Amino acid sequence: MNSSGQTVHVDLGTRSYDICIDAGNLAQIGSLTRSWLERSAEQSLKCFIITDTNVLHPHANAVKASLTAVGAEVRVVCVKAGEASKSLKEMSDLYDELVDFKADRKTVVLAVGGGVVGDLAGFVAATYARGLPFVQVPTTLLAMVDSSVGGKTGINHPKGKNLIGAFHQPAGVLIDTDVMSTLPDREYISGLAEVIKYGVILDAEFFAYLENNVAGLNERDPVVLRHLVARSCELKAYVVKEDEYETTGLRAILNYGHTYAHAFEALAGYGKLLHGEAVSIGMLCGSRLARKLGRIGDTEVQRQIDLLNAVKLPVDVPEDVVKRADDILNCMLLDKKTVAGDLKFVLPDRIGHVETIGGIDSSTIIECLS
Ligand SMILES: NC(=O)c1ccc[n+]([C@@H]2O[C@H](COP(=O)([O-])OP(=O)(O)OC[C@H]3O[C@@H](n4cnc5c(N)ncnc54)[C@H](O)[C@@H]3O)[C@@H](O)[C@H]2O)c1
Ligand SMILES: [Zn+2]
Predict the structure, then answer these.
(1) What are the residue boundaries of the structural domains of the chain, listed by start?
(2) 74 in Cβ contact with 97 (< 8 Å)
């Protein structure tokens, strides 16, 4: 690793692990995996890589080469890119592959891909033989700053997203920001919504850093990328440490913008709006709601609009969705985070701080769509 590398420690007692972040560190995954699993060079190492069709060449192959170079026996399984792979059918096929590979409880599962691959591979690792060691190599911005941190794994049920899953923390995470050179713009920009979210909910200084580095964000400047990934991981790691199993309520602050966003995603038809795009629009609805309730002023709303615009994230609710107020409310009420019909919203009271607020009437929620 060159001297610019950065490590974020996720402090979870016996489940603690490191996130190693750098540009061009992918070739170190072999030696890092050995050290995370405390497996010396003489000991055998079986690695089961799960990736997708867009990530196989060149990234998953590079991971395979690095593992092979440290003497590991490696099997690569490639699933079809896209959300549809987070399915029971795919799980079942992967279990078959693991049996065929003669995986035992020391076999490590590596996820090389975006959040889809991470969630799927993590759930396979959590469940096969009652739990295999798991390593994440996230390759989308969203996976780097969000889904690879915190141990949530799972798949979709035809009736609901992420309905089936488990908490399973990885043994380590390697982030090579260079792998984003192949990531399409739309996916990259979508990931920035979660990055901006961390600024609003927890860190005013980080929000200002993003405002001051718009050019670097848009050009994917390696120094800016490393900082924004590392700071986002630190902030998520802090929340996860305080509320690993989503019991104290703190982890809920990560849902800023998401109550609206989930409804937009569902109504636009899954796949029409990328998650981060929906979150961007949802954050603005949330900030208008906060403004209406007198919790923030116009400046705080405008700063969010300006930053989201500057990185080319959408900020307006799609026209066909805006007309469907009743459907939006129904979607929100069906959200698994809704308790006994009371919609809870994570709302800022300044940039860098949020609170969870309930008891808001439906008409106010709807007025904030535009
Ligand atoms: N576990 C969690 O805490 C958590 C948090 C947030 C989201 N998620 C889940 O994450 C998923 C979304 O993740 P995502 O946005 O990464 O989607 P994704 O995994 O579908 O990746 C997006 C697209 O980019 C492609 N891709 C990935 N890396 C690439 C690269 N380096 N170069 C070129 N193409 C690349 C993929 O093949 C895919 O087509 C959802 O299923 C969501 O539920 C989980
Ligand atoms: Zn999100």
Answers:
(1) 6-182, 185-367
(2) no
User: Is 367 a known active-site residue?
Assistant: no
Specify the higher pLDDT residue, 330 or 113: 113
Q: Do strands 160-167 and 152-157 pair parallel, antiparallel, or not at all (unpaired)?
A: antiparallel
209 in Cβ contact with 196 (< 8 Å):
no
Q: Which residue's CA is the nearest one to ligand 1's atom 7? A: 147
Examine the residue annotation and report whether 162 is marked as an active-site residue of this protein: no
Average pLDDT over residues 225-250: 94
Ligand 1 atom at minimal distance to the Cα of residue 140: 28
Dist. CA 118 → ligand 1 center (Å): 8
What's the pTM? 0.96
What is the DSSP secondary structure assignment for residue 107, as one 8-state letter? Answer: P
**CATH class of the region 185-367:** mainly alpha
Q: For the residues of 290-324, what is the DSSP string, one character each? A: HHHTTSS-HHHHHHHHHHHHHTT---S--HHHHT-
Q: Does domain 6-182 have CATH number 3.40.50.1970?
A: yes
Is residue 236 part of the annotated active site? The answer reads: yes
| Residue 205: CB atoms within 10 Å | 10
- Please report, for the chain, how many H helices and E strands are present, in that order: 15, 11
Q: How far is the CA of 261 from the centre of ligand 1 (A)?
A: 17
